[in-house]
């Protein structure tokens, strides 16, 4: 069954205690020599899980610093507590809307319970790597392409939660998960580029049409103002001449009423 901090390690039994006592006597008799086999040291970022006759001796790992073991009866396993990062290999994933993409990521984790990481799983590091790959495929399989491209933070948080729950019995704490890259097929990239270009062209046409509509409304309002005041037309004519003269143009335009032109055309 999975080892927990509250589970009992059990008794060594009569034979076990006899072996422990004999080992202790052996250490005392050959003290100058056996001291080198009894004293062990672990670094600040390491912990030691001690097994005595195959049983875990304490509910808490030893270290950092110096600790003692009995030769012949005790063995120990060092556990690194530092944060470990690894790359998730690119995974070919079929999204919810039947699009095949290649996605990779990175996972950061550390050992939170050294005893559980040794007693409950044979290789916590390798098991976490395999679980991260399957979790990536399972989570992204429920997302469509738009969600995959726009909601990377939410996907990473969902993966972290799933991994953390699954590795809790292994004494592993998943600190962070990130989606590194999403590779789309070339045909899909071209289709998405064409779609984006068509969208931009449609938006440009709509903006141009709105500009024409606003300009026509402004011209209509200007014509109404000129119709109310005949002198406004003359002022507009003088302003036009001023604009032409500013460009050093010798051409002068004289507006003629349509009534006069139609009179000569009848003749």
Characterise the protein shown here.
It contains nine helices and eight strands. The strands form three sheets. A three-stranded antiparallel beta sheet has the order 3-2-5. Strands 6-7-8 form a three-stranded antiparallel beta sheet, with helices on one face. Strands 1-4 form a two-stranded antiparallel ribbon. Mean pLDDT is 80; it is low at 5-9. α1 (13-29) packs across α2 and α4 (124-140) crosses α6 (152-166). The protein has 267 residues and is α+β, with helices and mostly antiparallel strands. It is rod-shaped and about 140 Å long.
At the fold tier of CATH, the topology name of the largest domain is Tetrahydropterin Synthase, Chain A
Shape: rod-shaped
User: Which parts are unreliable, with pLDDT below 50 for 5 consecutive residues or more?
Assistant: 5-9
Radius of gyration: 41 Å
Strand order of the largest sheet: 3-2-5
| Share of residues in helices | 40-55%
CATH superfamily of the largest domain: Band 7 domain
**SS strand fraction:** 15-25%
CATH top-level class of the largest domain = Alpha Beta
Record field, number of beta strands: 8
Largest sheet: 3 strands, antiparallel
The succession of helices and strands, N to C, reads HHEEEEEEEHHHHEHHH
Q: On the 0-100 scale, what is the average pLDDT? A: 80
How is the quaternary structure best described?
A: single chain
Class by helix and strand content?
A: alpha+beta
Any idea what the CATH architecture of the largest domain is? 2-Layer Sandwich
How many helices? The count is: 9
Pfam families: Band_7
Keywords: Membrane, Transmembrane, Transmembrane helix
InterPro entries: Band-7_stomatin-like, Band_7, Band_7/SPFH_dom_sf, Band_7/stomatin-like_CS, Stomatin_HflK_fam
Subcellular location: Membrane
């Amino acid at each position: 069954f999975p080892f927990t901090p509250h589970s009992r390690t059990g008794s060594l039994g009569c034979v076990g205690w006899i072996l422990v006592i004999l080992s202790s006597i052996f250490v005392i008799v050959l003290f100058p020599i056996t001291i080198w086999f009894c004293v062990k040291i672990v670094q600040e970022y390491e912990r030691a899980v001690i097994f005595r006759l195959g049983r875990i001796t304490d509910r808490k790992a030893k270290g950092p610093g110096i600790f003692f073991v009995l030769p012949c009866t005790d063995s120990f396993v060092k556990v690194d507590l530092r944060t470990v990062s690894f790359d998730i290999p690119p995974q070919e994933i079929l999204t919810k809307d039947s699009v095949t993409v290649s996605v990779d990521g990175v996972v950061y984790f550390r050992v939170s319970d050294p005893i559980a990481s040794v007693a409950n799983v044979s290789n916590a590091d390798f098991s976490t790597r395999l679980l991260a790959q399957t979790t990536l495929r399972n989570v992204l399989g429920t997302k469509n392409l738009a969600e995959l491209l726009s909601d990377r933070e939410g996907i990473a948080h969902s993966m972290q939660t799933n991994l953390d729950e699954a590795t809790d019995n292994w004494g592993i704490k998943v600190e962070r998960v990130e989606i590194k890259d999403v590779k789309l097929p070339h045909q899909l990239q071209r289709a998405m580029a064409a779609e984006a270009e068509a969208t931009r062209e449609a938006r440009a046409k709509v903006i141009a049409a709105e500009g024409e509509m606003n300009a026509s409304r402004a011209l209509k309002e200007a014509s109404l103002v000129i119709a109310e005041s005949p002198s406004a037309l003359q002022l507009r004519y003088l302003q036009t001449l001023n604009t032409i003269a500013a460009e050093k143009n010798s051409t002068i335009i004289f507006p003629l009423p349509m009534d006069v032109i139609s009179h000569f055309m009848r003749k």
